[in-house]
Amino acid sequence: MGNLSNVPLSYYLVLSGILFACGVLGFLIKRNIITVFMSIELMLNGVNLSFVAFAAHWHHLSGQIFVFFVMVVAAAEAAVGLAIIIAVYRTRETLNVDQVNLLKL
Amino acid sequence: MLHLPLFLIFGLICVAGAINLLVQKHPINSALSLVVVMASLAVEYLLLGAEFVAAVQVIVYAGAVMVLFVFTIMLLNAGEEEHTKGSRVALLLGVPGIAIGGVLVSWTVLRHSNTAPVPIGALPGPPKDVALLLFHDFLLPFEITSVLILIAIMGAVVLASRPEAIVRRLRRGEPAQKAQKPEKRELAVVGKER
Question: How many contacts does A have with B, using Cβ atoms within 8 A?
Fold first, then answer.
């Protein structure tokens, strides 16, 4: 069963790094608060990929368990974050992060 | 074997989706390209032998979380984003900075790794082993996540509900509820008659 795959670990890490970089870039350049939030999800996905790749590399399933917990926290974060976005939109009627510059209206 | 071509194909789809997420102006297009990224990442997990993670990725991420996103975009009627002075500065500084950072990370990883292949068959990857680990060694964190989810749901309900609507309902108090109850009885009676 040993070397069924011939994909080096570093390829997975590079893909994960590219995804994380795209997430950081989206976080910086996007102005829509929902897209900024999606960039955060993209970063979490990039980290998850490196977790699974290392789990496969070291023959240890703890990495997959951690991915599971990351997903749970991301789901909770998405629920709360989108509720906050709805609340922000209600008070300001805009989704542009540049116009959300006060904690209280 | 077939693994390297599959990895390359779905890796390219993944990166293309991520770049499309950045390029698109409308948030709904970004959300749909994020679905593409997550689905192709699920294939990558399958290639790594992580069947459970791949299934959860499709169900939770590409399913539940993205439905939340699309629902919020539709609810708020989000249009195309407008650019300001700050966003142009972020574009000018961010794109080269992230490009340099990404190339540096990739170069370092490719140079300093022993590029050993990831053996798939050797990993005890089926969901049964994951479940054994999850419900023995990680039982306490697993139970704590249920509390976390519960608190998150309650927080989302509190945050997304209109405070003035709740206050109005509280002020109305008893009469409003009394007024509603007869209606329900009438409806039930009508239902029985039919």
Answer: 266
Are A30 and B26 in contact, with CB atoms under 8 Å apart?
Answer: no
Decide if A33 contacts A95 (C-beta within 8 A).
Answer: yes
In a domain, B174, yes or no: no
d(CA B120, CA B35): 26
CB-CB neighbors (< 8 A) of A8 in chain B: 113, 115-118
Count of C-beta atoms within a 10 Å radius of residue B80: 11
CB contact under 8 A, B133 and A61: yes
CATH class of residue range A9-99: mainly alpha
Judge whether B49 and B125 are in contact, CB under 8 Å.
yes
Give the residue extent of every domain in chain A: 9-99
pLDDT in tens, A37-66: 999 999 999 999 999 988 888 888 888 899
Domain harbouring B9, CATH code: 1.20.120.1200
* pLDDT (tens digit per residue) in B176-185: 444 444 444 4
Report the residue from B7, B31, B57 with minimal CB separation from A38: B31
Record: contact B21-A74, CB cut-off 8 A:
no
> What proportions of chain B, in percent to the nearest 5, are helix, strand and coil?
80, 0, 20
Into how many domains does chain B fold?
1
Interface test mutation site (partner A, options B4, B47, B67, B98, max chain A beta carbons within 10 A): B98
Instruction: Quote the DSSP letter at residue B77.
Output: T
With 0.90 as the threshold, say if the pTM is over it: no
C-beta atoms of A57 and B116 within 8 A: yes
pLDDT, tens digit (0-9, with 9 covering 90-100), for B29-51: 999 999 999 999 999 998 888 88
